Amino acid sequence: MNPHSIRYLYTVPIMTVGSLLIALGFNLFLIPHQLLSGGVSGVSMMIGYITGGNIGWLYFILNLPILLWGWFIIGRRFILWSIYTVIVSTLFLQLIPIVKIADDIMLGAVFGGVITGFGSGLTLRYGGSSGGFDIIASIVTRKRDLPVGMIIFILNSLVIAILVIFTQNWDSALYSLLSIFSAGKIVDLIHVRHIKVTAFIITTKTDELLAKLLSHPRGITILKTRGAYSSEERDMLMTVRTRYELAELSKIVTSIDSRAFINIVETVSVIGDFTKPKD
What we know:
Order of helices and strands: HHHHHHHHEHEEHE
Largest sheet: 4 strands, antiparallel
Helix content: 55-70%
Strand content: 5-15%
């Protein structure tokens, strides 16, 4: 069995579990108290509360244009796993009954946030997302070097502001912020959103890798290396990426050169243009 087949064997169950946790957090903790989660799911909940529409299908429909947008800008592997997560989450939202597990609204907010955050964190860690604002933030960071967490926080704050305008219910808005804050902390524990990493790739297939990697808006530097033991000369490609892009980078490198050596180190800071030079 090749490495890609093995990867799918454990990625599919993990993405499925992540989707299940997201649906459990929604239907057992947040929706019964009419609270919002972060992102597009929060928009879906707000529309559902106001109109009485099916929140699961609203979540699916609102994610479609964002996923389509991401398909043309972000790596296809990331979007494909995001599509899988959105579809499976939608199905679980239809199958799991809406039941109020916790009578206390604060417990619903905290545990709903923790459970959905854990589910979203799993999907992000293994190369996908739960759709929505995660994809929008990932697209924005490819154009401007801004913290993903800050972008998501601003978008979520707009959703909460709209909730207050429509419902005039400050309690629900504040408890929803508590839920979003709890989810964000759990996601950060599982998948740190805006840490830059430097990848050092030693390969014998430089031209093939460059043809694929240079389509990405990140620069690459070629360094000549020589093995101490074999004395063989090879190229080392050095590139700085965000953790959002790491899974896609690894997939591309291993698919072209299965014998490539990849060393990934955390980058403290980047001074200068983070994107690929235009000339």
